[in-house]
């Protein structure tokens, strides 16, 4: 809900809403002597107030509580931000869940001396997902723009990216791209893979990675990433990245944490930006997010203060 809409619903001016929001800043002072044992952070597109227009969301991995919105995702800014917390607080952190962006690793090791790095499973799967998609697009181009193969690969691309265990093989329907033949989804996948040996290999790699991640199978992951010989170049590149972060991916199999809640909050932030037509001021942007997210430390602090005030009266 936009600030203007809130003002309309309560029959006040928009400036009154802003003044009330700013009055809550007394509840957002961070405690630099404490951090949760398990944290996660992920970047998101914010505004011109941040370098590269990218900021960072910090969350408690265990209870999915938003701890803070950090202005910039650059290593220099992140280091400056986290050094506000004393060493005792940073030493309490046991796990840090992040994506596969390499520059974060050295920073995490420096700032959180006792922390284990956990590679987020979504970003792990995305590596192979994007590589498979590149092979599919290359196959389309090689087949010719208006060819049957190109049209079929364009129309049914989602089936290739679907977990093979969830591909339907029971229900049949007419498929325009296959001369109206009665086919189930598995038939379509088989015909698409028959169009290119490279596509078939990339698909096999992607499905094995899905299996390793879903089953939390370290042995299967090690076997898969040991070598990508004979694979299309996009898969080889993805495999190099996964092999580099293999220990962190296995940590994901051991610990119950992921950046799923972080990604969910990032989607809420997108909605906030859309209804507010963007933000020019970082402090207002941060405040709006911390107020809008129900489980943020700001909203919980505010509720606690209201309860204390009610009991005192």
From TrEMBL:
The Transposase IS204/IS1001/IS1096/IS1165 DDE domain covers which part of the protein?
Answer: 42-289
Species lineage, top-down? Bacteria, Bacillati, Bacillota, Bacilli, Lactobacillales
* InterPro entries per record: Transpos_ISL3 (IPR047951), Transposase_DDE (IPR002560)
Task: Identify the species of origin.
Answer: Ligilactobacillus ubinensis
Under which name does UniProt file this protein? ISL3 family transposase
């Amino acid at each position: 809900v936009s600030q203007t809409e809130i003002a309309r619903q309560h029959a006040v001016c928009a400036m009154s809403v802003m003044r009330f929001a700013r009055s809550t800043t007394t509840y957002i002072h961070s405690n630099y002597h404490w951090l949760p044992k398990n944290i996660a952070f992920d970047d998101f597109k914010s505004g011109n107030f941040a370098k590269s227009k990218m900021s960072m969301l910090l969350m408690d991995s265990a209870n999915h509580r938003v701890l803070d919105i950090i202005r910039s995702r650059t290593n220099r800014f992140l280091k400056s931000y986290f050094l506000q917390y004393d060493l005792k607080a940073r030493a309490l952190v046991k796990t840090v869940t992040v994506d596969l962006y390499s520059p974060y690793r050295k920073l995490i090791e420096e700032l959180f001396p006792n922390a284990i790095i956990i590679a987020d499973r979504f970003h792990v799967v995305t590596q192979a997902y994007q590589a498979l998609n590149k092979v599919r697009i290359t196959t389309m181009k090689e087949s010719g723009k208006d060819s049957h193969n190109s049209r079929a690969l364009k129309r049914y691309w989602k089936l290739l990216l679907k977990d093979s265990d969830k591909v339907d093989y029971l229900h049949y329907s007419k498929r325009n791209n296959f001369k109206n033949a009665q086919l189930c989804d598995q038939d379509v996948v088989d015909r698409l893979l028959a169009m290119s040996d490279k596509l078939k290999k990339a698909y096999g790699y992607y499905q094995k990675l899905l299996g390793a991640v879903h089953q939390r199978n370290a042995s299967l992951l090690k076997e898969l990433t040991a070598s990508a010989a004979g694979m299309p170049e996009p898969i080889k590149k993805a495999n190099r990245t996964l092999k580099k972060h293999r220990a962190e991916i296995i940590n994901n199999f051991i610990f119950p944490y992921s950046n799923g809640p972080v990604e969910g909050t990032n989607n809420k932030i997108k909605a906030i930006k859309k209804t507010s037509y963007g933000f020019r001021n970082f402090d207002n942007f941060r405040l709006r997010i911390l107020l809008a997210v129900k489980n943020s430390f700001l909203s919980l602090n505010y509720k606690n203060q209201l309860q204390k005030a009610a009991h005192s009266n």
